[in-house]
Amino acid sequence: MLATMENMALLDLSDELASMILDSEEAQNYKYTRQVLLDDANSQKNIRQFIRIKEQYEEVQRFGRYHPDYKEVTRKTRAYKREVDMDQNVATFRRAEMDLQSLLDEISLLLASAVSENIKVPTGNPFFETKSACSTGGCGSGGGCGCSA
Known about the structure:
α2 packs antiparallel against α5 and α3 (41-61) runs antiparallel to α4. This protein has a domain at 13-115: YheA/YmcA-like (YheA-like fold), CATH 1.20.1500. The protein contains six helices and no strands. The protein is mostly helical. InterPro entries: Bact_com_dev_regulator, Com_YlbF, YheA/YmcA-like_dom_sf. This is Lin2161 protein. It comes from Listeria innocua serovar 6a (strain ATCC BAA-680 / CLIP 11262).
């Protein structure tokens, strides 16, 4: 019975944490920039063009340089990719996405280190990998590495 009550308390706390994340500035900014991106006709046109040429590129890649359209499709793919990358709405959305991912990575590291310094949390972010590789047992310990987690 006690284990069930503890599990319920943990689930309640995890719901509270999820709500806090959803209410965070990073999550709100992510939602806003995503909606701006989805609502912008020019951005969506650029993305659709890139998706179409990317599908052609994948088809051409099956044959490599021997495909008759290899050079043209490769050139167009790079051009459309550059167009999408230079789109202000796409760039803003990607920044917001990275900010939210960094917040989630930091939370994951804090939770994992609270349980054990030996738990590995894949973040894909070199900033966190450097911190977690600290010689004093991880940054979650607030040890001699100088960080205060």
